[in-house]
Amino acid sequence: MPTNTYYNIAEKKQKKLIEVGVDIFSKNPFENVDIQMVVNKAGLPRGSFYAYFENLEDYYNLVISTLRTDRIKKVSNLAEGFKGNLFDFLIKLFKYDIVQYAFDERKLLLTHYFRFLQTRKMGCLEGTIYHPSQKIGIYSILASFKTGSDQLDQLDGIKKASLIDYAMTIYLSTYNVCVHDKMSESESLELFTERIKIIEKGVK
User: Contact at 8 Å (CB) between 33 and 24?
Assistant: First the structure.
């Protein structure tokens, strides 16, 4: 989280720092960005950066928070009234992501965020909007769907949490492959459907 010093600066300056981050992290994956790139583009003294943020990941989390808020809202809208099971919904969500970001100038921000989630802590989604520890996030939406297995749906949340964590890891990796390989919408959807159906068959 940013320091109190960050929240004490003018709102216009806060907004500029976020806009700079959106631009930089849309064009570069997290591991290719350093603090010098940020301070140069923002016209910010290096010392001020450390007065506002603990490190680069702290800054990245602030920048990506705008994407998280928007994403939770979009997933909630897609889930409203949906009648299928968890796997059907993930296919619908994947199609939305592929179509929505195909021509969006910020699509690489989402792509790089997915890559960041996939690689940080060796793939663990802890602390993200996909993890059950988050009070406000996407996990609770996904957990509300049936899996197609009465036995699994009646168990405590631990096994279902593991299933969702695994399914989202497949989701993130497949999305990144599709974008990296510049696959068409139909090719992307076919690949993800094939992968997610393997998990569904394993559950049943």
Answer: yes
What is the maximal distance between C-alpha atoms in the chain? 58
Query: CA separation (Å) from 186 to 16, 49, 94, 189, 198?
Result: 38, 44, 11, 5, 19
Q: How many domains does the chain divide into? A: 1
Contact 110, 165 (CB under 8 A): no
Cα(171)–Cα(152) distance, rounded to whole angstroms?
Answer: 21
Q: Residue 199 is encoded by which pair of tokens?
A: 């998990």
Residue 76's domain is classified under what CATH number? 1.10.357.10
User: Shortest CA distance to 176 belongs to which of 91, 121, 116?
Assistant: 116
* Residue 162 banded pLDDT, cuts 50, 70, 90: confident
Q: Which residues contact 40 (CB under 8 A, 6 or more apart)?
A: none
What digits encode the pLDDT tens for the residues 144-159?
888 876 655 555 566 7
Q: Which domain does 44 fall in, by range?
A: 4-203
Side chain identity at residue 145, one-letter code: F
Give dist(CA 71, CA 82) in Å, integer.
Answer: 17
Distance of alpha carbon 145 from alpha carbon 85, whole angstroms: 5
